[in-house]
Specification:
Shape: rod-shaped
Order of helices and strands: HHH
Number of helices: 3
Number of domains: 1
Structural class: mainly alpha
Distance between the termini: 17 Å
Amino acid sequence: MGLSRKRKKELRRLQDEANKLWSAQQVLVGDAAHVAREAGRQLDNFRREQVLPAVQDVYEHRVRPAVDRGVKISRDVVDHRVVPAVGGVIGSALSAWDIANAKRGGVPRAVASLVPEKKKGPGIGTVIAVILGVGAAIGVLVAAWQTLRADDELWVADDPLSAPEA
């Protein structure tokens, strides 16, 4: 059973309207993509011109001095409180050991002092600086990833798709 001429004419007209609508939508999506790209560019400019200097200023005037004070206080506490206390305890223990060895006829202290001492590891300030450095590096990497990641929602086809045939 075939279509009448009138129905064929109506279907052709409907197909033409659908093709016009499809073309208009492609233009609209292209314009939306252009606006989204421009918004991203403006946002990057704002980040570079406004946010980054403010963050650097806060870091230089608030965070860095606080960290430097904390490192200085930590170093002072370790140098003037912890080391003397530990030294006193170790000195008392060595004295007790020397007395015990002298009673048993053990190794004299002069010979024991010829044994090389173990090197000290990194101080508390070094550990804090490493932790802060790793934190700062992670922050920079996260910011770079957020800036450079692809936004799949903004993808627009380069060539317009053809309208479905009726």
